[in-house]
Design goal:
The complex is a heterodimer of chains A (152) and B (307).
Chain A (H helix, E strand, L loop, with lengths): L7 H11 L3 H14 L5 H4 L6 E2 L8 E6 L9 E6 L5 H14 L4 H5 L12 H4 L1 H22 L4
Antiparallel strand pairs in A: 1-2, 2-3
Chain B lengths: L8 H4 L7 E2 L1 H9 L8 E5 L16 E2 L2 H5 L10 H10 L7 E5 L1 H16 L5 E4 L2 H7 L30 H7 L4 E3 L3 H5 L23 E2 L15 H11 L7 E5 L5 H12 L4 E5 L2 H5 L23
Parallel strand pairs in B: 1-5, 2-3, 2-4, 4-5, 6-7, 6-8, 8-9
Helix pairs in contact in B: 5-10
The chains are: A mainly alpha (152), B alpha/beta (307).
Chain lengths: 152, 307
């Protein structure tokens, strides 16, 4: 797998991680955790609209939104919620938000399932912890698939 | 040189008060320059590998349970050479007083303390209440990473036997007290991992026959500190039915949560012989032909005849 197969924003993030040493990659992940946008008010007050990704070590909730009558090329928006005491989980969410938010269902579904491994964090974070991010991406893709009707 | 032990009424009731320090005590020690002058080494050990980076107690170094303490090939802890290198790099010498704190009521901090004890490190203490209490009290945090002067640490061979149980030890132990510190759902066999945690693969659910179910967090108060001696006695002597002098084995899923219980039994209640079975459910629940009990009852051990 190469970054050429990835949407451009996600490919740029992967390139940024790969250009760094391992300790610097952790620092970058921390920056992504701090850059994760807050939930909009309409979701903040309605936790039932988000789904928990149980594979993450810390509580992580997410949902997606598309426009009404959206087609396969319409933009998909991603929303995440994770506590500040869980910076690793927030960092993964931040990477996926910056890399995927606003892309079409087709583009999101084309992201390889093992994309998180490209970040080069597996050794510093450990495979166990990386599983949470892979699960997050899988959950996003399942929800996008269900909402768009692609791949069903 | 060991640093002076904290004196207070709560700790004095414990069997080994020298194993705990309070947030007030640590704040005062920091203000006295205990970290700068090498009197104390403060270590943060968390579940989340990035939490230290978001801000930590000034002067504290980070030790990650996964990347620093576990061997990355064999399912085991690091060896004497790797531990000596890790300790020295963190500014820890063989005679250093080490105070460990972490997230989740010190669950990972207790695990790190247990690994330090495998190597026979003499003076290692927990910060009662851990990271959460320090943060809740709005005490100082920093993102500055210390650059400690290297410590002098000999290559010590790990001595597992007194505080670590392997699967065969547990089989030989059956009939003596066991404490299962997992959630009730894991104990009964409804699930094989913690609620909302990753499935780590156990083929069978349930518990080791006769084990008492005392979820680890019951030893902690809402503020993350250990329950006082009377409360711990009600839990382990009363509810679990342990009696003084018992030889006890504690286990969970991979040995982390049970380190917290191991600490409470060993140092707060003073049980001499307490071992942590770190293989725990990820080993027992996958092992061939070991006995398992499902449901809320403790179950019994089959009496074997012959040799």
């Amino acid at each position: 797998m190469t970054t050429q197969a990835l949407p451009s924003a996600l490919a740029a993030i992967v390139d940024d991680f790969q250009a760094l040493t391992e300790p610097e990659r952790l620092q970058l992940l921390l920056e992504f955790s701090e850059g994760l946008p807050q939930l909009p008010d309409r979701l903040k007050d309605h936790p039932e609209l988000l789904e928990q990704v149980v594979e993450c070590q810390s509580p992580l909730f997410l949902t997606i939104e598309t426009e009404k009558n959206a087609g396969p090329a319409s933009p998909v928006h991603l929303y995440f919620k994770a506590p500040v005491e869980a910076p690793t989980t927030r960092g993964f969410a931040g990477v996926l938000h910056e890399g995927l938010d606003g892309l079409s269902a087709e583009q999101i579904l084309a992201v390889p399932d093992d994309m998180p491994e490209l970040l080069g964090l597996t050794r510093a974070i450990t495979p166990l912890r990386m599983r949470g991010m892979t699960a997050m991406l899988g959950r996003i893709k399942r929800k996008v698939s269900a909402a768009s009707g692609i791949g069903r | 040189m060991p640093y002076a032990v904290e004196q207070n009424d709560k700790f004095a009731a414990y069997a080994h008060p020298e194993r705990l320090v309070s947030t007030e005590w640590l704040a005062a020690a920091l203000a006295d320059g205990a970290v700068e002058n090498g009197g104390l080494v403060v270590v943060e050990s968390d579940e989340d590998v990035l939490l230290y980076e978001t801000g930590h107690i000034p002067g504290a170094v980070k030790i990650d349970w996964h990347t620093d303490l576990n061997d990355d090939v064999t399912r085991d802890y690091v060896d004497g050479a790797a531990f000596a290198a890790l300790a020295a790099a963190k500014g820890i010498s063989r005679d250093s007083t080490v105070v460990i704190y972490g997230d989740k009521s010190n669950w990972w901090a207790a695990y790190a303390l247990w690994v330090f004890t495998l190597f026979g490190h003499q003076d290692v203490r927990l910060l009662d209440g851990g990271r959460d209490k320090w943060v809740a009290e709005e005490r100082e945090l920093t993102r500055d990473r210390p650059s400690p002067t290297a410590g002098t640490y000999p290559e010590v061979e790990r001595n597992d036997a007194p505080i670590r149980a392997f699967k065969d030890d547990v089989l030989a132990h059956l009939g003596k007290p066991l404490i299962d510190v997992r959630s009730p759902e894991e104990y009964t066999g409804q699930r094989t991992h913690m609620p909302a945690y990753p499935e780590e693969g156990a083929l069978r659910g349930g518990h080791i026959p006769t084990a008492a179910s005392i979820p680890w967090a019951r030893a902690a108060a809402p503020d993350g500190t250990f329950r006082d001696r009377a409360e711990l006695e009600a839990l382990y002597l009363g509810e679990a039915g342990l009696t003084e002098g018992d030889d006890v084995v504690a286990y969970c899923r991979i040995g982390e949560r049970s380190s917290h219980t191991w600490f409470a039994l060993k140092y707060l209640l003073g049980f001499e012989s307490v071992r942590n079975y770190d293989g725990s459910w990820t080993e027992w629940g996958n092992a061939v032909r070991v006995p398992i009990v499902k449901g809320a009852e403790r179950g019994s051990v089959a009496v074997t005849t012959g040799v």
